[in-house]
Amino acid sequence: xxxxxxxxxxxxxxxxxxxxxxxxxxxxxxxxxxxxxxxxxxxxxxxxxxxxxxxxxxxxxxxxxxxxxxxxxxxxxxxxxxxxxxxxxxxxxxxxxxxxxxxxxxxxxxxxxxxxxxxxxxxxxxxxxxxxxxxxxxxxxxxxxxxxxxxxxxxxxxxxxxxxxxxxxxxxxxxxxxxxxxxxxxxxxxxxxxxxxxxxxxxxxxxxxxxxxxxxxxxxxxxxxxxxxxxxxxxxxxxxxxxxxxxxxxxxxxxxxxxxxxxxxxxxxxxxxxxxxxxxxxxxxxxxxxxxxxxxxxxxxxxxxxxxxxxxxxxxxxxxxxxxxxxxxxxxxxxxxxxxxxxxxxxxxxxxxxxxxxxxxxxxxxxxxxxxxxxxxxxxxxxxxxxxxxxxxxxxxxxxxxxxxxxxxxxxxx
Amino acid sequence: xxxxxxxxxxxxxxxxxxxxxxxxxxxxxxxxxxxxxxxxxxxxxxxxxxxxxxxxxxxxxxxxxxxxxxxxxxxxxxxxxxxxxxxxxxxxxxxxxxxxxxxxxxxxxxxxxxxxxxxxxxxxxxxxxxxxxxxxxxxxxxxxxxxxxxxxxxxxxxxxxxxxxxxxxxxxxxxxxxxxxxxxxxxxxxxxxxxxxxxxxxxxxxxxxxxxxxxxxxxxxxxxxxxxxxxxxxxxxxxxxxxxxxxxxxxxxxxxxxxxxxx
Amino acid sequence: xxxxxxxxxxxxxxxxxxxxxxxxxxxxxxxxxxxxxxxxxxxxxxxxxxxxxxxxxxxxxxxxxxxxxxxxxxxxxxxxxxxxxxxxxxxxxxxxxxxxxxxxxxxxxxxxxxxxxxxxxxxxxxxxxxxxxxxxxxxxxxxxxxxxxxxxxxxxxxxxxxxxxxxxxxxxxxxxxxxxxxxxxxxxxxxxxxxxxxxxxxxxxxxxxxxxxxxxxxxxxxxxxxxxxxxxxxxxxxxxxxxxxxxxxxxxxxxxxxxxxxxxxxxxxxxxxxxxxxxxxxxxxxxxx
Lengths: 414, 263, 289
Hints:
The complex is a heterotrimer of chains A (414), B (263) and C (289). Chain A is α/β, with parallel strands linked by helices and 414 residues long. Chain A contains 14 helices and 15 strands. Chain A has helices at residues 2-16, 61-77, 97-109, 122-135, 165-178, 192-207, 226-233, 246-257, 274-280, 282-285, 300-313, 319-338, 343-350, 400-404; strands spanning 42-48, 86-92, 115-118, 138-141, 158-160, 183-189, 211-218, 239-242, 266-269, 289-292, 354-355, 363-365, 372-373, 376-381, 392-398. Chain B is globular and about 45 Å long. The model of chain B is unreliable at 1-31 (pLDDT under 50). Classes of the chains: A alpha/beta (414), B alpha/beta (263), C mainly alpha (289). Chains in contact: A-C, B-C. Chains A and C meet through helix 1, strand 7, helix 7, helix 8 and helix 9 of A and helix 1, helix 4, helix 5, helix 9 and helix 10 of C.
């Protein structure tokens, strides 16, 4: 009796799977002085993954980066600052589009956010873009990779600051194929991001004169890739492209390194962050090539900012931290220049602006599709780390125009 | 109807010395009581299945509980064993209160249970079924004696317990409590569904252990079988003791009782 | 054909993790009647502990194979003594919910302490590289992990069939009440058995550390497949858990090889078929008193 009932319960529980819930936080109220701003203050909303796979990539430390921008803004303008009272509110979207949607609504309406920043995860990012469009409020995306933000789903109030999947594809697939890695097999996780990456990579490989023998979809999430790797090794490819992210990527690389393909076939990774190298260990990724939007130890300017970041967080910044800083700083500058926080006026100030700062090199906020184009980097993982977080050799700077190509024709701003 | 209290209200004797049980083997009313149940009521949820039942069993005595299905016989055994907990009333074993004791403590104090489904483990071999319970008394049968008495168990000792026939499983269930050295056996319908020759064999076993001073509380629907082994009989109907008879009276009224019990 | 052999070997290697963990789940269910939802979290803790022991105390893989199960045994004992015990008398659903809640706590605690992007761990020296026979290739570590799982399963099998402890555990698994009535203090065995089951999950975690991503979430998907394994094998059936563990590993590998998109669905289709045809699982007993 007992066994039978519980057997049923477990069968149901197993199929029903699990839903892990967590709560997002929100900032408290604050009183402000007087200025030309609505509600007398500026509210910056940081909406990202505070508890899941992208927590280390951006997460709570992006708030620190934004506060660094506020600090610099206040230091720069002092008494002349238009925004004297600036508040940062944060929320956890748990990588779910519906939560991102309601949190964004709450931020714009109830918390009076003038702008929302970050929003990794493509589905969540697109949900927030719709909110920004409807509410006519600013939104600068940093963490998400989808090209739809500057394509079919682009709008007047949405900007895409750091990277997108076609930049990664041009950087990684284009460069490796041109260097002689002609025959590719691709394994991608079977959800929107993975499918998108697979398409972009296939396009760039073909354009650069290479071929894709097989594109294999893997279930998401997955922790056993041995058989996928065996399949991907069939047909004697030069390169195997893994389009996985987070834990899936670590599983893939660990198991690739234990397979007979290690050393015979090159491994290229579609989307990789410094936090992945950190968690897996530099020697596991040694020699792997990928495209990075920014690297903290690239030059003295980056290093200086990274040192400041480390003092506050005890860790090195990812590209997302630097991009959050850059986006917040440029937004504040635009407010300063405009003398108001009116969204339409700010959009006017931002469009077409050419920027060179700690994150953006040869940067330009492209008016046509709101892609913030800038130089990106082809990175190669070092074989050993001279210090913690010093994992990348920058092999090549890919100029902004080459990395971003032409403005996305799918975008129409009206 | 006879007075069903005569047997239970005889003498006030001091709590018997259980080690001396073999000497106190004279059956019948008036002997030192090994098990005494008084005013026992039991429920399953809201449903009352026993109402103030009082019975007793002396060392070396065989006492049956006779009644229709659903009269509460098995519940009474399970309550004594400590497996049914929704009860009121008192139970003593050798004068010691059982209320606070768990089923396993009662087993170690000398109560041996042979359930109506025989309770043979499928995942244990015949030998393991025998060896599972701890030995609780010096008079426990050594394994050699068990095998001598039940040669079939020796032959099949490495078989899974449930590969035995029904009769053999019944032998095994009884052999198990004998090897344990239980002083009070609770036998729940040992003759049910067995061939007459096996039932006869079970009768022999009961008489054998009775001779050693072991007390037996036997639930039985087979009135004829009950009358060949038992000293006294309690008739249960709807959770109450309705008759308490010595074996002579029981035999004399066998036909009447059968009709009364609808058997 | 060589591809088929390759997939079979990979399936058996993955099945080893399932078998080892499902074994612990089955032992706990058998003796306590508790469906331990936190088993996946304990598997994760095993892997995380290995990584932490290495990073902070320089304790290597081989030592972790011994130390981590001992630590996890202690963790299981605490868990049973402090929490699980109090709900044993109630509907099994209560302990299912308790262990579900515990899973959330453990996962969050690990996230807070060690972050979410995972911890590094290398293949131990001597177990790197591949073995090739013809065109069949398998990593040395996968072979090791598979053989190790088999050895542990066989050892546990011997413990259960050849010792008095095993006899008692089997009896208590089959019929706890009856076993009490035969003078065995089943309660006395409950704590060590629970600890033992948790230790097995921890051991599977140590084995997974060199070849899987060590993240707080690594058990979340794992436990779902584990439930499918024990349902297929028959809840509480120890042999069933082991056989179904390897079976699910194989089905998963063939699924990936011949229908990659449906690889994980295939497992649950198998579970559904088993539940329909034999509701008590492949090795479950049909009638339970």
